[in-house]
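// run 5 | inverse folding | seed 20
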């Protein structure tokens, strides 16, 4: 009898203890920044790959030049962002460029190849007709800007460099895999401008886009990870200390992970401020930032400054008690460069984009202290006819988050 009483008491105690432990587990409600910002609701961003037809011919050459043949690109990539104002209408910005450039062959001797660089920037309306819960048709109509980097032979232009406005149209079909992830099958067509020596551009592609929508969050989490709202960061570099060509290890000829540049920098200092606007519970975050940077060029030691605003995506791949380590990537941050012609290299203009790639860590119990290693790049994304780019090698930074 005593044994039965003991077993009963033990079971009651165990159940009570387990219930108490369960009810005393710390609960963490989702933060406001774990929800998609209202301004991004029904916005989308996407990527496509496909066939290009850009039929350059001798009618596009000037000053009497004639080629024996043309090698025109037949494969391209496009990126696009847009916003649906309602289920039937969106506005979109896009950029398409071939993987390889066009070439005029045999202009002055049989083996000569003269390159013609092309990209197509678009600002379009996107009317949409839903056919079912998953399938929709859409059209495109708006402005296209062809940015063309021409060439010369013996200081005589063969085809001029120019930014050329034209009409851009197209359309396609989308299939919703989920409410957010969509397959996209589309075509784009920019009309020829014979007066500007520019043929039409046809692009047929397949790809995907992600539609931002409100997230379904749990009532609470049983774990907690720190995402500070603000960070101030100061960094610098000198090529006498670090490899000046580290960027090339992340660059593939036609589809780079990152980019190099014709204008090299010798040393520099960067001051950055970043503010987190969205994060998931553990692995992903999105920030907006501002930066002021000063550099010296590698040949003539010319000083110039860069003023940027930029997006920053982070993937937090390691979480520990005293250290959180992340990979970060930032592209297409609008930038103003105080000089556009240095070391005998013309950058195309003062407008540029800032790109960043690197690793960083937040240290300490409250993760206030930051260290990071970054490589950088500035270019105008072929929006301007000249686009040699600026290369910023390895930058070491320290910061404080709050």
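// decoded
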């Amino acid at each position: 009898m005593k044994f039965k009483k003991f077993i009963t008491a033990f079971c009651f105690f165990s159940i009570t203890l387990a219930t108490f432990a369960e009810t005393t587990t710390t609960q963490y409600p989702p933060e406001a920044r774990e929800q998609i910002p209202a301004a991004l609701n029904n916005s989308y961003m996407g990527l496509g790959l496909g066939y290009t037809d850009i039929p350059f011919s001798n009618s596009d050459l000037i000053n009497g030049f004639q080629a024996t043949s043309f090698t025109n690109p037949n494969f391209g990539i496009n990126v696009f962002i847009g916003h649906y104002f309602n289920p039937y209408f969106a506005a979109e910005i896009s950029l398409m460029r071939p993987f390889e450039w066009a070439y005029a062959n045999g202009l002055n001797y049989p083996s000569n190849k003269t390159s013609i660089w092309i990209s197509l920037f678009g600002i379009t309306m996107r009317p949409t007709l839903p056919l079912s819960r998953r399938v929709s048709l859409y059209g495109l109509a708006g402005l296209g800007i062809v940015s063309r980097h021409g060439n010369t032979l013996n200081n005589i232009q063969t085809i001029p460099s120019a930014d050329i406005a034209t009409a851009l149209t197209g359309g396609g079909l989308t299939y919703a895999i989920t409410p957010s992830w969509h397959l996209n099958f589309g075509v784009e067509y920019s009309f020829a401008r014979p007066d500007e020596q520019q043929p039409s551009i046809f692009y047929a592609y397949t790809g995907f886009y992600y539609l931002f929508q409100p997230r379904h969050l749990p009532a609470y989490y049983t774990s907690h990870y720190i995402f500070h709202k603000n960070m101030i960061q100061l960094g610098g570099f000198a090529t006498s200390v670090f490899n000046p060509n580290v960027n090339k290890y992340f660059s593939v000829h036609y589809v780079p992970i990152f980019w190099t540049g014709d204008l090299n920098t010798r040393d520099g200092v960067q001051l950055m401020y970043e503010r987190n606007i969205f994060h998931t519970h553990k692995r992903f975050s999105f920030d907006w930032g501002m930066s002021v940077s000063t550099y010296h060029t590698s040949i003539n030691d010319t000083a110039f400054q860069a003023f940027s605003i930029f997006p920053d995506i982070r993937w937090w791949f390691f979480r520990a008690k005293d250290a959180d380590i992340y990979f970060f990537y930032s592209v297409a941050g609008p930038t103003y460069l105080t000089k556009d012609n240095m070391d005998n290299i013309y950058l195309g203009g003062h407008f540029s984009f800032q790109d960043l790639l690197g690793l960083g860590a937040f240290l300490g119990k409250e993760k206030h202290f930051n260290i990071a290693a970054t490589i950088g790049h500035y270019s105008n994304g072929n929006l301007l006819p000249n686009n040699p780019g600026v290369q910023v090698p390895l930058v070491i930074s320290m910061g404080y988050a709050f």
